[in-house]
Amino acid sequence: MNIALIGFMGTGKTTVAKLLAEILDYCLVDIDEEIVKVEGRSIPDIFAEEGEEYFRDVESKVTLNISQGDKQVISTGGGVVLREENIDNLKSNGIVVLLRATAETIFQRVKDEGGRPLLEVADPLAKIKSMLAERADKYNCTEYQIDTDQLSAEEVVEQILKAVKSEE
């Protein structure tokens, strides 16, 4: 069984995935990192050179391949939910956990990071709010949902472990 973490950028997927994989002694797989390996270039470069649709095609292929493994904690990109097939593939061999945060929390977490092509706009907070609203229905694809605004990574992991136990 795999545990896949979905959610908007800045909700804690990467941080929580690392800790969860360590605790469970599972393999940690980051879909964005796998895309970079497959493509041999950065995600901002893929967006700039090929566009978002091409990136989403690659993301879907990588998600399908990864979801067939076992005993993995999978950290997904924020837009993996844009294609239902990705969620179906992730659910086919594990549980999917949504990590959520408010737009303000997300903005504080990602504002100094760079490398976020979708946020390279005049008002990134407004863009985050708009994207969260657009994706709300798609993120609501799993019963396992955790608000990360006020929680440490360790507290999020505890909640995920409770969800996993309920599935066993």
UniProtKB/TrEMBL annotation:
<protein>
    <recommendedName>
        <fullName>Shikimate kinase</fullName>
        <ecNumber>2.7.1.71</ecNumber>
    </recommendedName>
</protein>
<keyword id="KW-0963">Cytoplasm</keyword>
<dbReference type="InterPro" id="IPR027417">
    <property type="entry name" value="P-loop_NTPase"/>
</dbReference>
<dbReference type="InterPro" id="IPR031322">
    <property type="entry name" value="Shikimate/glucono_kinase"/>
</dbReference>
<feature type="binding site">
    <location>
        <position position="14"/>
    </location>
    <ligand>
        <name>Mg(2+)</name>
    </ligand>
</feature>
<dbReference type="GO" id="GO:0000287">
    <property type="term" value="F:magnesium ion binding"/>
</dbReference>
<dbReference type="InterPro" id="IPR000623">
    <property type="entry name" value="Shikimate_kinase/TSH1"/>
</dbReference>
<comment type="function">
    <text>Catalyzes the specific phosphorylation of the 3-hydroxyl group of shikimic acid using ATP as a cosubstrate.</text>
</comment>
<keyword id="KW-0479">Metal-binding</keyword>
<keyword id="KW-0808">Transferase</keyword>
<feature type="binding site">
    <location>
        <position position="56"/>
    </location>
    <ligand>
        <name>substrate</name>
    </ligand>
</feature>
<dbReference type="GO" id="GO:0008652">
    <property type="term" value="P:amino acid biosynthetic process"/>
</dbReference>
<dbReference type="Pfam" id="PF01202">
    <property type="entry name" value="SKI"/>
</dbReference>
<dbReference type="GO" id="GO:0005524">
    <property type="term" value="F:ATP binding"/>
</dbReference>
<keyword id="KW-0460">Magnesium</keyword>
<keyword id="KW-0067">ATP-binding</keyword>
<comment type="subunit">
    <text>Monomer.</text>
</comment>
<feature type="binding site">
    <location>
        <position position="78"/>
    </location>
    <ligand>
        <name>substrate</name>
    </ligand>
</feature>
<feature type="binding site">
    <location>
        <position position="116"/>
    </location>
    <ligand>
        <name>ATP</name>
    </ligand>
</feature>
<feature type="binding site">
    <location>
        <position position="32"/>
    </location>
    <ligand>
        <name>substrate</name>
    </ligand>
</feature>
<comment type="pathway">
    <text>Metabolic intermediate biosynthesis; chorismate biosynthesis; chorismate from D-erythrose 4-phosphate and phosphoenolpyruvate: step 5/7.</text>
</comment>
<comment type="similarity">
    <text>Belongs to the shikimate kinase family.</text>
</comment>
<dbReference type="GO" id="GO:0005829">
    <property type="term" value="C:cytosol"/>
</dbReference>
<keyword id="KW-0547">Nucleotide-binding</keyword>
<dbReference type="GO" id="GO:0004765">
    <property type="term" value="F:shikimate kinase activity"/>
</dbReference>
<dbReference type="GO" id="GO:0009073">
    <property type="term" value="P:aromatic amino acid family biosynthetic process"/>
</dbReference>
<keyword id="KW-0418">Kinase</keyword>
<dbReference type="GO" id="GO:0009423">
    <property type="term" value="P:chorismate biosynthetic process"/>
</dbReference>
<keyword id="KW-0028">Amino-acid biosynthesis</keyword>
<feature type="binding site">
    <location>
        <begin position="10"/>
        <end position="15"/>
    </location>
    <ligand>
        <name>ATP</name>
    </ligand>
</feature>
<keyword id="KW-0057">Aromatic amino acid biosynthesis</keyword>
<feature type="binding site">
    <location>
        <position position="135"/>
    </location>
    <ligand>
        <name>substrate</name>
    </ligand>
</feature>
